[in-house]
Amino acid sequence: MSTISYKDAGVNKEEGYKSVGLMKDLVKKTHNKNVLTGLGSFGAMYQLGQMKDPILVSGTDGVGTKLEIAFKTKTYDTVGIDCVAMCVNDVLCHGAKPLFFLDYMACGKLDAGIAATLVSGITEGCLQSDAALVGGETAEMPGFYKDGDYDIAGFTVGVVEKEDLIDGSKIEEGDTIIALPSSGVHSNGFSLVRKLVTDYDAEYGDKTIGEELLTPTRIYVKPILELIKKHRVNGLAHITGGGIIENLPRVIPAGLEAVVDKSAVKILPIFKHLMSLGVDESEMWGTFNMGVGFIIIANPSEKDAIIKTLEELGEAPYEIGTISRGDNGICLR
After folding, report:
1. Alpha carbons 301 and 51: distance in angstroms, whole number
2. Cβ neighbour number for residue 312 with a 10 Å cutoff
3. Its principal location (predicted)?
């Protein structure tokens, strides 16, 4: 009687061992003195350090269907940055410093080289956000995913002193809304993008449209953490799926609304291009970030100082609105 191996079932353990070997040095670059375990432990250990009243803030997200463009163009080194960005930018909205990150990768047939290149993007995202990549899971699932397809998701934990927590409760009427530019589409709205763009090799300026769409999501951790050390900030918002319309109201207290001047928003050319392919303007504003990746809400007396600090940190902040009395959460006009 013949026997059946795990490899016969479609899972190549040797390729898995090879991928771990290729990843180890990449992962180690993200570690700091607080990481107490290496790659391969059953659980990752992280020493929190001295804090008075710490609050842990967690976040999880994935890259979504942007992955399809990466695989069709065989560009594997950027989407890992997106995965990290989607998580760390979220916990940052509460003033939390990301401590560590874990990733989950699933595929139909594991290619150690591709897997390691995907993880190289994750490690780059962790370096950009000062988060340690402390562990992860690579699952080879033949018959469940098509060969050549990968899915990536991540999880992060950050920390903030309770007295420094930012939750929007201090937002007041008259506060100023300050925008930080996005790098492009980031990692949201790609189900619509893929309906509009089918040839990723088509020219777009001095690059292909595929290269433009794969521009990694900006990670705002370092400038925002520096900012809140120096200035009072009342609210922070990461502009992801649903754009400004859906994300900014998440931090606005009851009885107030964000009044955003559309004409003040510096819309990036990629969004004008996508709209020219047949998308209604209202659909664009309700789906994409339109050029605004992160928002700061602060007292108007702090506005000039905040903008100056951000500019000194290499950012390009600008004012897009104010907080007013109202019950709609947001008024885009």
Report:
1. 30
2. 10
3. cytoplasm
Strands 150-161 and 54-62: antiparallel
Q: Which of 128, 99, 307, 323 is nearest to 217 (CA)?
A: 128
Token pair of 275 as six digits: 């709209």
Q: What is the DSSP letter of 96?
A: P
Closest residue by Cα to residue 101 from 121, 82, 123: 123
Closest of 251, 259, 88 to residue 168, by C-alpha: 251
- On the CB side of 332, CA atoms within 13 Å amount to 15
CB atoms within 10 A of CB 162: 10
In tens, the pLDDT along 154-211 reads 999 999 999 999 999 999 999 999 999 999 999 999 999 999 999 999 999 999 999 9
Low-confidence ranges of the chain (pLDDT < 50): none
Q: Which of 115, 128, 39, 116 has its CA nearest to residue 82?
A: 128
- Give the DSSP letter string of 41-63: -SS--B---S-SSEEEEEEEEE-
d(CA 122, CA 150) in angstroms, rounded, equals 14
**Whether this model's pTM surpasses 0.85:** yes
Alpha-carbon distances of 116 from 80, 122, 251, 275, rounded to whole Å: 10, 10, 37, 36
Read off the DSSP letter of residue 142.
B
CA distance 235 to 258: 11
- Which 8-state DSSP code applies to residue 213? H
Which SS3 state, helix, strand or coil, does residue 325 take? strand
Q: How are beta strands 256-260 and 318-325 bridged, if at all?
A: antiparallel
